[in-house]
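Hey, can you fold this one?
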Amino acid sequence: MIRISKMLGRALLSAATLSVLAASSTAHAQGTDTWQDVRKAGVLRCGIATSPPYTMKDPKTSAYSGVFPDLCRQFGEQVLKVKVEYVDTTWDNIVAGLQSQKWDISLSLNDTPERRKAISFSEPVVDYSVTFAYNKNNPKVPKTINSIADIDKPGTTVTVMSGTAQDKAISAVLKQATIMRLPGFDETRLALMSKRADLLADDNMTNLLLTGAHPDWAAVFKPNPLLAQQGIAFGIRKDTPAADVAVLNQFIEKQKQSGSVSRMVDASVKETVASTK
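Sure. Predicted structure:
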């Protein structure tokens, strides 16, 4: 009996040791230092899909501008002390590319419950809700729009960028209108301007830009209560340590408190409006 007890004790001790080692290994894997890895690589890769005024790309020079490209560049150069590389992607792939480590951080993402199942987020940089831009001279659109029901009718076409948060938002509330999903910013605006679409669903800031550039015909319907109200933030991988998330959030908060984010928004709005004239 004594011998059996000793053998059992050794077995339990071995099992306990293996358990501790396994837990240590798991903790080490989960504790990967994201920004340390970026520093070792010498470059911060920023996944980007265009959505003015938050993310923009000059078609002539391929240079990036806007609130999020500027913040990403500052974070990489001033905080992490590395070069910054922008990686082109689409709204349909911007989450999957982050998960598969094609880049280190995703720009200008709506913080949604669905996306939080796959990735994590920084604190919000700017606020967001979905509005509907339309041609006020279009007879198919009511002179006065009081609710979603006024535009959710057979024969009405609403265009939206495919795979975006606004796409998901209107898909949940439009049951009768036709949704025209297009790949990018320019395509959706051309659809509205050419009257292939009757309304354009986009974020509040972007549609405000449209009315500012075309006050003679463009108007905006802002649902009440706000549709898909949320924050727009940086997307980061699920395994990013809390300490690294805090570094990014502290940087964002500092830029907001200093007024830098507000100045970036103003500059991006002016740049976007100027490019449409």
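Confidence is low (pLDDT under 50) at residues 1-31. Let me know if you want another pass with a different chain boundary.
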